[in-house]
Amino acid sequence: GGAAGGGPPPPPLPQSHYQGDACALTTSVIASTVAEALVEITEAVAGGADIVELRVDFIVDLDARRDLPAMLAACAVPCIVTHRPTWEGGQYGGEEEGRLEALWIAVEAGAAYVDCELIAAERFFA
Q: Matching SUPFAM superfamilies, A to Z (predicted)?
C-alpha cells in the first residue's frame, strides 16, 4: 500500500515517530547505574528506538531529583518512565510514597509517559 493520498509510501526513517500508520518501536533500558543507563539510552536511540522505556526500578541508589532529569535530557525520543514495585514484579522494594514521588518527578522533568499501575493510580493522582 501507498500513502493515504494514493502516492508512494514515504521513505523509511531511522525513527518513525508515529508517522502514518507505522508501529512505534519501544526499547527498555535496564541498568543498575545511571551511567550505564545513559549509555543504553544512546544505544537505543542510535539503534532506531522510537520510544525508550526507562526501567528506573533497576537503578541502585536512584536519586530521582538528580537522576531522572539527567536521563530524560539525554533521550532524544519520547520516554516512558517505569518504577515497578516488587508487588508488581519489579525491583523497587521501598516505600510507595517514594516511588510515586519519583514518577511525578519524571512528569515534571519531561517524561512523555509514566507507567503507573491501575491499583496505584488513585494515590498517584491524589
A: Aldolase
